[in-house]
Amino acid sequence: xxxxxxxxxxxxxxxxxxxxxxxxxxxxxxxxxxxxxxxxxxxxxxxxxxxxxxxxxxxxxxxxxxxxxxxxxxxxxxxxxxxxxxxxxxxxxxxxxxxxxxxxxxxxxxxxxxxxxxxxxxxxxxxxxxxxxxxxxxxxxxxxxxxxxxxxxxxxxxxxxxxxxxxxxxxxxxxxxxxxxxxxxxxxxxxxxxxxxxxxxxxxxxxxxxxxxxxxxxxxxxxxxxxxxxxxxxxxxxxxxxxxxxxxxxxxxxxxxxxxxxxxxxxxxxxxxxxxxxxxxxxxxxxxxxxxxxxxxxxxxxxxxxxxxxxxxxxxxxxxxxx
Amino acid sequence: xxxxxxxxxxxxxxxxxxxxxxxxxxxxxxxxxxxxxxxxxxxxxxxxxxxxxxxxxxxxxxxxxxxxxxxxxxxxxxxxxxxxxxxxxxxxxxxxxxxxxxxxxxxxxxxxxxxxxxxxxxxxxxxxxxxxxxxxxxxxxxxxxxxxxxxxxxxxxxxxxxxxxxxxxxxxxxxxxxxxxxxxxxxxxxxxxxxxxxxxxxxxxxxxxxxxxxxxxxxxxxxxxxxxxxxxxxxxxxxxxxxxxxxxxxxxxxxxxxxxxxxxxxxxxxxxxxxxxxxxxxxxxxxxxxxxxxxxxxxxxxxxxxxxxxxxxxxxxxxxxxxxxxxxxxxxxxxxxxxxxxxxxxxxxxxxxxxxxxxxxxxxxxxxxxxxxxxxxxxxxxxxxxxxxxxxxxxxxxxxxxxxxxxxxxxxxxxxxxxxxxxxxxxxxxxxxxxxxxxxxxxxxxxxxxxxxxxxxxxxxxxxxxxxxxxxxxxxxxxxxxxxxxxxxxxxxxxxxxxxxxxxxxxxxxxxxxxxxxxxxxxxxxxxxxxxxxxxxxxxxxxxxxxxxxxxxxxxxxxxxxxxxxxxxxxxxxxxxxxxxxxxxxxxxxxxxxxxxxxxxxxxxxxxxxxxxxxxxxxxxxxxxxxxxxxxxxxxxxxxxxxxxxxxxxxxxxxxxxxxxxxxxxxxxxxxxxxxxxxxxxxxxxxxxxxxxxxxxxxxxxxxxxxxxxxxxxxxxxxxxxxxxxxxxxxxxxxxxxxxxxxxxxxxxxxxxxxxxxxxxxxxxxxxxxxxxxxxxxxxxxxxxxxxxxxxxxxxxxxxxxxxxxxxxxxxxxxxxxxxxxxxxxxxxxxxxxxxxxxxxxxxxxxxxxxxxxxxxxxxxxxxxxxxxxxxxxxxxxxxxxxxxxxxxxxxxxxxxxxxxxxxxxxxxxxxxxxxxxxxxxxxxxxxxxxxxxxxxxxxxxxxxxxxxxxxxxxxxxxxxxxxxxxxxxxxxxxxxxxxxxxxxxxxxxxxxxxxxxxxxxxxxxxxxxxxxxxxxxxxxxxxxxxxxxxxxxxxxxxxxxxxxxxxxxxxxxxxxxxxxxxxxxxxxxx
Lengths: 323, 1071
What we know:
The structure holds 2 protein chains of 2 kinds. Chain A is an alpha+beta fold. In chain A, 29% of the residues lie in helices and 31% in strands. In chain A, helix 4 (48-61) packs antiparallel against helix 5. The radius of gyration of chain A is 21 Å and the shape is globular. In chain B, 42% of the residues lie in helices and 11% in strands. In chain B, strand 10 and strand 11 form a beta hairpin. In chain B, helix 2 (12-23) runs antiparallel to helix 8 (101-128), helix 6 crosses helix 8 (101-128) and helix 10 (192-248) runs antiparallel to helix 11. The longest helix of chain B is centred in the N-terminal third of the chain and has 57 residues, at 192-248. The two termini of chain B are 85 Å apart. At the A-B interface, strand 15, strand 17 and helix 11 of A face helix 8, helix 10 and helix 12 of B.
């Protein structure tokens, strides 16, 4: 047990942080340990889940303070995840997850993995002229939450962001859609209803904004998030499309925070993870790991006047009462 | 303490874990013990890394040290076993790890780490109790957390420095090898040795790269942790600012900066150290760099982040330690007076500076003045800049202390009107907020920036009488403002939530007299403000708090008046809880109702600025309890006689001529002397044997009243006697001297006093029907001093005897008009004009009549009706007049004044019920004989007299009256001045006798309460015509319907009618 660091092998702080989030998740490692070992060495080298498993073993067996993820990094580079490139953690998370899923051969594991991470929503699009409505089920790996509202005002809390995200939106003017019944472009009401939430819920705080076309800058303002998150308290009845049994499980506890410091052009990632076995928080800065407290995690809320400090970027919540 | 020592001092449960740890460990405990200090000093973790040459070096050092141990003389023969074990251990280690020293390094590193873990658990468990704590040590209070984190931060910083030095070594080695072996100019590709060397170089570079990344990771971690510390310190500083603000308002809180200063300095120091480390890292990159050098991208990033953190910390660390205040009003800071000295002090909590660099602090007033029309501008006189002083001792910190500053208003030449903001701007002077801003050019370790901090807003006044309302502004601002720099706060001052206001008001009392307001006090204040019980949502508007109300003064002015009174006179009593203080009349009745007769409480007047009074309860033999209160004492009175002494000596003249102190038990039931004993001032013990030129004298306060229980008010008698003791020594003496006459003189008793030199006796009787005259010692009366009478309240009648010896008619005239209330029937003697005269009293709270008798000039009696509505009405129309003074009125019985003890009742002419005393009065005096039970009417001729008198009243009654005097009076004048008053009176009485016929009984009739009874009796006997005059009589008298009479004016409560619902007198109270 305990936490083991990962050496930085070339701007790999982002990868390291995500790997820690995966590997500290005992539900994920429970699946990972059951993968089929690829038969030959070449395949082993190129198999992401297998390399992750090797890394996990290495981290857990040795009493070393940190191990080097160089083999996994090499393996990933075959899939165009290169070293010495600064990635966006949310994007890398999706890439990594998809690689893992694709390379897990057993269908039951794939299913379990999907179930563990996938959010299901139902998108509604209703014509405001006739009442025709189209629904579409879709799934997501993260909830990409804006941190500014449509007027570019800062949202105050994570709960506000979630509410804003699930708020119905009117599509008017040049956003109008073509309605088949009306036979012309009409205003629509677009809304999203939550159908299912996974065991491991990843929330992506979109802490950046595009200003003057190409220039992206980071939003480091204060945005608190709770340790305990109850979706039933956040969403209204008509923002959900789930039965009571499902809803009863929508009680979450914070598991990890992937935090970013620096600017959009250059920066550093680290991960704050609550060990599920010890119930202690750790901070992973590449090879440096140390025990921290909730107060340290709170420092990633952001700050109105400080732009270079750590701010939470990905929040990973876990269900309190797994089914 | 070294780690191994600490481990050994662990509790057994944890020691057991340590034993288990070493049971199977490759490092025997004996070696650990033997080389404890050395082992702890090495960086095993570093050495444990693959390919580290460090591990081999450490391993061999260890073996060598063990060898030394074995050979050292310190181990004698008795340590034979120890030697044996060490030798064995050395052999085993060498055999096991010679090939792979990194493994050994790893083993040791892990053992040390595990020891630390057990140590933490053990220490946490030891604090929290015996049970081993499986969880992490509890983060207890914030202060401990900060200290623990600061310690951890320093440890981590040292580790980072160690890692950095290791990196330097690695780099030097690499650099050397590289320069020696790498020869890019030549084509050596074929040379296998060269290839090998290049490969080795490559490997070294790998290690170097990894070490660089590790050091960077460590720094990232350090910065992350210091951000938490930054937030903690920021939080603590915020809490301190709040405390400082509360302290300014009078709360007693800890505003020491020392802990914060220590923390800020420690963190600042650590961060500056880190900054230097980062710079050194940058230097390393200058020497050796390579493709994808992590230092290249990350060092600037780290430095950026670190600088931002440092700047933030320094900016917060510059604080105003002492808000601007004037030395003489230090309990009310933030109020400055132009041209008066004040001081203000700022401090930089990060106590780091370069001694070679002078840092200058400057102050500016209103750097960004609000755009308010008429906003006054000021200059700070004397210097506005100062070098930041680093005190000689490091404990002093970095302080810029500005003392002896003064403010001078800038005359604005353009406006041409000076800068009188009051008339022009929307804000009055006391609502105009000013700020002083400090700036400091800070430079340290290559970091330069300008720090800035501002005081809380303050008010600038030009006169001390603005102090109270300026302070109200300061209270309001600091209680409610969310922005400490909001100079326009009073453009739209927010209302104050009651709970917050209550707290702040309580602090005012706490800071003045060390005792805050209780829940009951606050409840009373809330009811006063809101008219009902406050809800947590109740709010009070600024204008209602600070602007004058209908009562003529604001709530705050009233409260501040009480604060002033406490400060000056009642501090100790308030502090010790003897003053109930804020009690409404209703509440006071509730409290006292069930208590013994003579139970009293002390409360603040609600209608007089800075007044305090006593209310006591009496339980008559039948009927409801009666509550009585004295006219509030203010600073004017308390300055000459302290409240405990007033209470101690207070006298009430009651029946049977025995004056008594009605104040017997302090609510709830502490005996008076027990409660107040410690506060009485020292008595001057008179030595009777000694011949003195003067008698001692002591001031006491006396009230007299009629027996009639229905009267709510008492009169207060202030008599100054000389030599009270003497009087007391001769109880009855005076009485004896006076034959049968006027009982009212009671020796010992009441205030018999005599004005020694001045001769001014003032007797103020509140309501009474009683006459009191008291001369202490007759002989002492000094006829000569004419001036004696002083109308204390404007409405008073005064009679003054100008010339001694001579009775002046007026004096007799001193009679005062009876209370109207009683007799509706009454005659009318007073013209409506009169009623006005009476009205001056109206404003006063307790409508009472105050009679003042000044005996001095013997002739001079003064009776002043103070408050009363009491006058007689003239015809029915006049009834209005009665009501005129809303405040004024408690319907009271008519006053009867018997000048000096004659004990005379006076009935207005014409048989009016109203008592009036007419100047001509003597003639008009009517002795009531007890026995006789008769009221006597004034002769018809007299009736004519009264009106003039009344008219005369406002000024002084006299002149007209004089003309009216009956012959008899004139005769009295002829009496020798030297005579005692009593004698004089007596003689008057005798003279009267013939007329009255009732004289024999006269003595009895004296002011005594029973007189009323007598009167009652008399009334019965009287014909219907007389019945009117009976009005004087007790309201309880079935014949007198007045109480129920709706036309009776209501007694005003202590407050003005607009603010507070008037109290209606409950008829039950009388019956």
